[in-house]
Amino acid sequence: MSITKYGTMIADIQTLKDPQKIESLRKDILQAISPYMHDNVLRLDYLVTVSTKA
Predict the structure, then answer these.
(1) pTM
(2) Rounded to an integer, what distance in angstroms lies between the CA atom of residue 35 and that of residue 6?
């Protein structure tokens, strides 16, 4: 999976320049989003709640 097409990620990679730090960032990002990846699709589920006055 390529994560370098995300605008903020591109700027971060250009700032880091150290290949080890870039790879570490890549692994951290992939680990963080892995619970939301299903069949190579990033799922952005959210919970909609409505408050009620008691």
Answers:
(1) 0.60
(2) 19
The tokens for 36 are 């939301």
pLDDT at site 39: 87
- Given a contact cutoff of 8 angstroms between Cβ atoms, the answer to whether 4 and 10 are in contact is yes
Query: Who's near 51: CB < 8 A, 6+ residues apart?
Result: none
**Distance from chain centroid for Cα 28:** 9
User: Within the chain, where are the H helices?
Assistant: 7-16, 19-33
- How far is residue 38's CA from residue 54's CA, in Å, rounded to a whole number? 39
Q: In whole angstroms, what is the distance from residue 20 CA to residue 42 CA?
A: 25
CA dist 43 and 3 (Å) reads 15
